[in-house]
Design goal:
Blueprint lengths: L13 H22 L11 H4 L2 E3 L1 E2 L2 E2 L1 H9 L6 H10 L3 E7 L7 E7 L1 H11 L14 H13 L2 E2 L18 H13 L7 E4 L6 E4 L1 H17 L11
Length: 236
């Protein structure tokens, strides 16, 4: 018989649901990134490593999980207790340590369990998507391609504007994802979809003839695959 969640969604408080959903979303975003490791010339790390999500501050700001919770307004003195409540219900695992110096804060890592993932999927009605066909672009790659097709070219100052936020679903990974998206399009396995042109600080990214043809030929496929992406119909 199929296993059942440790608890039901109704057993959780609204705050606990908010935390579990944020942890799940970060987990799934990282899973998607690891699955597309081939697009930026690297290997996926073992799930035992990447499923542990850091909750805290980097030198440049909050970690993805902390920022997501900050955006919900749910971070306060009760954060630790909420993590522990989810752990006691078998929905997450916690791992923490203290830095080497007196007064150092606790370093906290959170990992959603299979029961936690199952509970979120059941409660939200999420249907697990099929694997992408070989060579198909991930959503954030297609979004970048669509922006280039619509704009003609993207200047390097887009890294501080719209292009910097091409990956709405994983916006906490923007700096990493932006470059890796470009790299995927520059080094697409069947031919470069875009190219860098210009010099100095005037670099811009534009579609190659292959990239334009690819967009126009595959637009209907990606329109169905990613209906929420603003992708202009080809002007053929």
């Amino acid at each position: 018989m199929p296993s059942t969640p440790v608890v039901s969604w109704d057993d959780l408080s609204e705050r606990q649901r908010t935390y579990l959903l944020a942890i799940y979303q970060c987990d799934q975003a990282e899973e998607k990134f690891q699955r597309s490791a081939w697009t930026h010339g690297s290997r996926a790390r073992p799930a035992e490593e990447w499923r542990w999500l850091f909750y805290g501050e980097y030198d440049y700001g909050p970690s993805p999980l902390k920022r997501m919770l900050l955006n919900t307004g749910a971070v306060d003195r009760g954060t630790g207790s909420t993590f522990e409540a989810l752990q006691s219900r078998g929905l997450v695992l916690l791992r923490s340590s203290r830095g080497p110096y007196r007064g150092d804060p606790h370093i906290v890592y959170v990992r959603v369990t299979s029961a936690g993932r199952k509970l979120v999927r059941q409660s939200t009605g999420e249907v697990r998507g099929k694997k992408l066909p070989v060579g198909a672009l991930w959503e954030w790659h297609w979004r970048a391609l669509a922006q280039m097709y619509r704009a003609g070219a993207l200047k390097n100052d887009h890294f501080g504007g719209d292009y910097f936020a091409i990956d709405d679903e994983r916006q906490d990974w923007q700096d990493r994802t932006t470059w890796e998206t470009l790299r995927c399009l520059l080094e697409y396995k069947w031919g470069a979809l875009c190219r860098e042109v210009g010099e100095g600080y005037e670099w811009r990214y534009e579609l190659t003839p292959f990239g334009r043809a690819y967009y126009e030929q595959e637009w209907a496929f990606y329109r169905k695959l990613y209906p929420d992406v603003d992708a202009s119909e080809p002007s053929r």
